[in-house]
Amino acid sequence: MDALTGPGIDEGLLLLRVLVGVPFSLHGFQKLLGWFDGGGIDGTAKWFASLGFGDGRSAALMAGASEVAGGLGLAFGLLSPLSAAAMVGTMTTAAFVNNAEAGFWSVYKGWELNGYLIVVAATVAVAGPGAYSLDHALGLEWFAGPLLGGGAVLLGVLGGWVRWASRDRSAD
User: Fold this and answer.
1) For the whole model, what pTM was predicted?
2) Most buried one in 19, 29, 56, 90, CB count within 10 A?
3) CA 99, 128, 149 angle in degrees (round to 5)?
């Protein structure tokens, strides 16, 4: 049974998951395949290299795959805590690398949007994806909640921080 119940909860979770998860996955397709005016692997790798991630190729592959898997996993409600961890890890790294020094507000290129995406992913991981999800259809409702979902989110934050902290800072 999902942690949340009541009129409109399942429909609200579906809207939240799809309207956040699908656009999030499109960013991954930009990185991996160059769709939607993205840089593809080569262009994204150059950008990541300029940020201190070695030659940038593994970072481009990791970020793109995390965005596609995390975004589509969230949208479909499949293995929701793991999908959330992928999103949280990617957004934690992005917040530190691209936005932390600018402060909170996105209007100043701060980490505000990264934070919102982390909160959305964490909410689904903890609350569960709702009745209109593959987790529900597959009988995986137990695969969410404060302990498991919260643990996955913390793992995502830790992974994102480690990825940021281990980059070559001389590129700054």
Assistant:
1) 0.90
2) 90
3) 60
